[in-house]
Specification:
By secondary structure, the chain is of the alpha/beta class. It is built from six helices and nine strands, in the order βαβαβαβαβαβαβββ. The strands form two sheets. The chain has a six-stranded parallel β-sheet, sandwiched between helices. Strands 7-8-9 form a three-stranded antiparallel β-sheet, with helices on one face.
């Protein structure tokens, strides 16, 4: 297995942000997207355009065309969590050794936990949860509690000290 290939599937804003960070490393990047992506910059398009495979990331032939067998890491980052999970299951069959990261949502919590517990070297993330702390700190006014609504759920952030927030749901 080539130790530097990172395969990124679902080229939206999150994926392009990851690509920008990976460009700072020695990693070789291959991309899969169903259609030509809406690139955030012309430079990203220029750099990644030649390594882009167009097609359904759930299809074994598309994954193989993108050299999945040589990938050390595979990121499924489309905005469709079901497609991401389906593609991750197919990827595990095609490359049993690669680290797999799957974008999902908290609504799929039970299935996410089951899949993570049964499939080795696979991590499922919810990007909203990754940014919650930074969002809370940037919106907090200091002395007042912060109320925040995301995906129909209300949250109350209580400042217990300047560096710590209690992320408890408000019912």
């Amino acid at each position: 297995m080539n130790n530097s290939l990172v395969l990124i599937c679902g080229i939206g804003t999150l994926a392009q942000t990851c690509i920008e960070r990976l460009l700072e490393t020695e990693a070789k990047i291959k991309c899969i997207n169903e259609n030509e992506p809406k690139w955030l910059s012309q430079s990203l398009k220029d750099i990644c355009g030649s390594s882009l495979v167009l097609g359904d990331m759930r299809e074994p032939s598309i994954l193989s065309q993108a050299e999945i067998a040589n990938a050390r890491s595979i990121l499924f980052l489309s905005s469709n969590p079901t497609n991401n999970l389906e593609a991750a299951l197919q990827a595990r069959v095609l490359n049993p050794e690669a680290a797999i990261v799957v974008r999902s949502t908290k609504q799929q919590g039970d299935i996410n936990h089951l899949i993570e517990s049964k499939i080795p070297n696979l991590v499922i993330i919810d990007p909203h949860l990754l940014t919650a702390g930074a969002t809370a700190q940037s919106l907090a006014s200091g002395e007042n509690d912060l109320y925040f609504q995301m995906e129909g759920q209300s949250y109350r952030f209580i400042s217990t000290n300047p560096d710590l927030f209690d992320y408890s749901s408000r019912h």
